[in-house]
UniProtKB/TrEMBL annotation:
Gene3D superfamilies: 3.40.630.30. The keyword NAD does not apply. Keywords: Acyltransferase, Cell shape, Cell wall biogenesis/degradation, Peptidoglycan synthesis, Transferase. One of its GO terms (molecular function) is aminoacyltransferase activity. One of its GO terms (biological process) is regulation of cell shape. This is Peptidoglycan bridge formation glycyltransferase FemA/FemB family protein. Belongs to the FemABX family. Pfam families: FemAB. InterPro entries: Acyl_CoA_acyltransferase (IPR016181), FEMABX (IPR003447), PG_Glycine_Bridge_Synth (IPR050644). It comes from Nocardioides immobilis.
């Protein structure tokens, strides 16, 4: 049974560097992005003293009380294939209770179901289908089902997704696998084979952007201002609240740690320009073999030059060249209702080929049931 100890940010980083990947939300750098939360780095250690798991825990203080929600976004990084999850999560709950936590929230990075692009397209076209869950999945993960069953047995409570978005991180995402498997083994995609998985509209838009002279480049921290100006414009058009420029400056520094001998994360600013005008801009994060499209912005003018398609294709090619095995377009809702305003987002992502992926979602373990109940009421009133 693994034991738990507090480790330094450097020890945490060094352990993650030995793994194929982990969520960027579980890297030491993410603690700097979420500076309003108190951060702690934890490790699970086996009998020989070897680190076998790690976690970034973010503690959010309750108003007026010296009690905290302990949050592990898309974590912890442990052996989720085990049949003895309690041996891992029990020490975690006891530790955070000692730190004043009234509850702990985790986000197991475990896939439960997958759907192909063709299945989603058919679902949207079918008037009787309203939700992704109504479509029989291409794949049901036995490992994912085992995790969900164990969490229920251990008293954890699933946080129901609202419109497909979980309480914190998205439960449903859209991903492009950059490898494929057959009877002879696992093979890497080429740019040509990836283009073939995209729909005709996406391929046409990528070609059109090139023909129109859209130029895509990787920027520096100085280009975050240009990205942010376009992001604020996008927020006004699409009716969401934008984050301040300072947030992205902190994120850039935190996920591109200077002087780190072995950085586990990398954030890039991507810029698509047409005749000198910025028409699209994005942020992409990579940790080992997993690459994420994190934030995006596009101009309302010149939409016909297809800057958004051009910049996405550049990021996909970069992920492929870096040895990533998956390109992650992040959250989607689970709606397949053609009349729902959210369906446009999934249609844009479905055009890339790829697949919709459901994760186990976020789970809470109440430690102080009275405070947890009050917290739930507070959230419901927000």
């Amino acid at each position: 049974m693994p034991s738990m100890r507090v480790i330094s940010a450097d020890e945490h980083r060094d352990y993650l560097a030995t793994l194929p990947t982990a969520s960027f939300l579980q890297t030491p750098g993410w603690a700097k992005v979420k500076a309003e939360w108190r951060a702690e780095h934890l490790a699970w250690v086996d009998d020989s003293g070897q680190t076998v798991g790690a976690a970034l825990v973010l503690y959010r203080k309750l108003p007026k009380l010296n009690r905290y929600l302990a949050y592990l976004p898309e974590g912890p990084v442990i052996d989720w294939s085990t049949d003895r999850l309690g041996d891992w999560l029990g020490p975690l709950a006891r530790h955070v209770k000692g730190q004043g936590a009234f509850a702990v929230r985790i986000g197991p990075p475990v896939v439960t179901r997958r759907w192909s692009a063709a299945q989603i397209k058919d679902g949207i076209a079918d008037p009787d289908v309203r939700r992704l869950g109504q479509v029989p999945p291409l794949d049901r993960s036995a490992a994912g089902a085992r995790v969900v069953a164990q969490l229920h047995e251990l008293g954890w409570r699933h946080q129901a997704a609202e419109g497909g978005f979980a309480a914190g991180q998205p439960q449903f995402v859209y991903q492009i696998p950059l490898t494929w498997t057959d009877g002879t083994g696992t093979h890497g995609h080429t740019e040509e084979s990836l283009l073939k998985t995209m729909n005709q509209l996406w391929r046409r838009n990528i070609k059109k952007a090139a023909k129109e002279g859209v130029e895509v480049s990787v920027g520096t921290k100085d280009d975050l201002k240009a990205f942010h100006d376009l992001y604020v414009h996008t927020a006004e058009r699409d009716h969401f609240t934008p984050r301040p420029l300072h947030y992205f400056e902190v994120m850039y520094d935190a996920l591109n740690p200077e002087g780190s001998a072995e950085p586990v994360s990398e954030l890039k600013v991507w810029l698509a320009r047409h005749q000198g005008d910025l028409v699209a801009a994005t942020l992409a994060v990579r940790v080992g073999q997993h690459s994420w499209y994190s934030y995006g912005a596009s101009s309302t003018e010149k939409r016909d030059v297809r800057g958004s398609n051009a910049v996405q294709w550049a990021m996909i090619r970069d992920a492929l060249a870096a040895g990533a095995t998956v390109y992650d377009l992040r959250g989607i809702t689970d709606t397949l209702d053609a009349d729902d305003s959210h369906v446009g987002l999934i249609q844009f992502k479905v055009g890339t080929g790829g697949e919709a992926v459901e994760y186990a979602g976020e789970w809470d373990l109440p430690i102080n049931r009275v405070l947890y109940k009050a917290f739930q009421i507070y959230l419901a009133r927000r």
